[in-house]
Design goal:
476 residues, alpha/beta, Rossmann fold, 6-stranded parallel beta sheet, 4-stranded mixed beta sheet
């Protein structure tokens, strides 16, 4: 599990809701992403077919996950790629450090990798004297400002042009203030190109790993991923165990779903297929390629047939773009690597319910996330399960921290409620007393949070049965 500081989710949400600029930035950006996806998936019947296929391909891969991972290792090793297995983020971090030290390297350029964020790799390397520089433009911006990504696909989505201009001016030495987008891009390009040249090791994520051929697939739009994986002498690729697919022919529909859902494109500008290190006679590419395969709680998720569908996620981020909660609080309020609907189900399963179970309460259960998920993950159902297991003491539960919210008062209250509602005589008598006295829900204790924003419900003078009888309605 990742070593996070204690997350005060309620406090984070309050601060986000009071940040009018953040809300404005998120609203503008999310509207654009939603519109692009709608354009690229304009044919509903075709989209549904594609989503069904994506769901089937990911389910098939997960159904034989252990075998495919072994096959991937065997094929990669045969291709000259060195494969490392990491059970925890700490183990993965030390593997990266060991590779760096074995080459006497002190500078690392990074392509976009959510797994590296999950590992908190940058901070770890910095403590060990390694410079780790983000080269994705959005990641570069937030790294300059000492922030975490606010979105899976668009990490600096919470910043507007004016804020980015200020960051560049203040954080990059000798940089004049400018709000011209072309000039800002040129500044970033000039800074990063120098770092590409100086770095000894490049690091990337992996969008899909093909077991059949031992191929690592990486999609991007800026070319920085290609620079990280070809210019330096050593390439380190990071992936979670769930990124493996069975065959090369499985990639086209999954890439179509990923790029269309993430950025509204038919295909990204760059699709990198990495199968070997530099061969004899080739003029570019790394001399060494290392693949680190991270578990970090995923095996526990895989072991549960219901929770396993969480691992179908292809990290497109479209559930975030369509989520009404994310649209109002942004990504940092969640306090963990993965925000939005996918974060509400993934973080509690990785970090445990006591640490991250509260995230599942940040949902209206509107089902928007499930309706747009390219691989049809039933996110609302998993949110309900996480909520339920936060109160469940069932020893058969596989979720770490289950039952952490359970308390004696609430347990006794629900037992009394159950007895009243399964006994018609007690139920009728109780309702009669309450209706005569017209007792309202008290605006105190745990009920205060409910009545603070809602009209307090009142019991009617007469029950439905009494009204039916009074009006002579035949209800047999």
């Amino acid at each position: 599990m990742t070593n996070h500081q204690q997350v005060d989710f309620n406090d984070n949400v309050s601060r986000a809701l009071n940040d009018t600029q953040l809300i404005k930035n998120i609203k503008a950006a999310m509207g654009t992403l939603v519109a692009k996806r709608k354009t690229i998936f304009s044919d509903e019947a075709e989209t549904e077919q594609l989503r069904t296929l994506g769901n089937a391909l990911k389910k098939k891969a997960l159904s034989k996950l252990p075998q495919l991972l072994e096959q991937l290792e065997e094929k990669c090793s045969r291709n000259g790629i060195k494969v490392h297995w990491a059970e925890t983020t700490s183990e993965a971090n030390h593997q990266v450090l060991e590779i760096m030290r074995s080459h006497g390297a002190t500078r690392l350029v990074k392509g976009k990798s959510m797994v590296s964020e999950e590992m908190e790799l940058n901070a770890f390397l910095q403590k060990n004297g390694i410079e780790a520089l983000e080269t994705d433009l959005g990641e570069f911006i937030i790294q300059l400002n000492h922030e975490k990504p606010a979105h899976i696909i668009v990490p600096a989505i919470h910043k507007n042009k004016d804020q980015i201009s200020k960051i560049f001016h203040e954080k990059i030495p000798n940089t004049p203030y400018t709000e011209d987008v072309a000039e800002l891009t040129a500044i970033a390009r000039k800074t990063l190109r120098k770092k590409f040249y100086e770095a000894e090791v490049g690091l990337s994520g992996v969008n899909f790993a093909v077991a059949e051929t031992g191929t690592l697939c990486l999609v991007e739009n800026e070319g920085n991923g290609r620079m990280c994986t070809t210019v330096t002498g050593v390439h380190i690729a990071l992936m979670g165990v769930e990124k493996v697919v069975e065959r090369l022919e499985d990639l086209p529909p999954l890439l179509r779903l990923l790029t269309g859902s993430a950025t509204g494109q038919l295909i990204t500008t760059y699709v990198n297929m990495i199968t070997t290190a530099r061969k004899q006679g080739e003029k570019d590419g790394p001399k060494e390629v290392h693949l680190i395969i991270l578990d970090n709680g995923r095996s526990q998720i895989f072991a549960d047939p219901d929770r396993r569908q969480t691992l179908q996620c292809i990290r497109c981020g479209t559930c975030l773009s369509h989520c009404p909660v994310y649209n109002r609080i942004g990504g940092h309020a969640y306090g963990y690597t993965y925000p939005g609907p996918i974060g509400k189900i993934l973080n509690p399963q990785i970090e445990g319910l006591k640490a991250a179970g509260v995230l599942a309460t940040a949902s209206s259960l509107c089902n928007s996330c499930e309706e747009v998920c390219p691989v049809k993950i039933q996110i609302p159902d998993l949110i309900r399960r996480i909520r339920n297991e936060s109160y469940s003491k069932d020893p058969a539960s596989t979720l770490a921290g289950h039952g952490y919210k359970r308390n004696l008062l609430e347990t006794m209250t629900w037992k009394v409620w159950e007895k009243i509602n399964i006994n018609p005589v007690i139920n009728a008598a109780g309702l009669k007393i309450l209706s005569v006295l017209r007792i309202k829900l008290p605006n105190i204790g745990p009920l205060k949070n409910w009545t603070r924003y809602r009209a307090t419900p009142e019991l009617a003078p007469k029950s439905l049965h009494e009204l039916v009888k009074h009006h002579g309605v035949d209800h047999e």
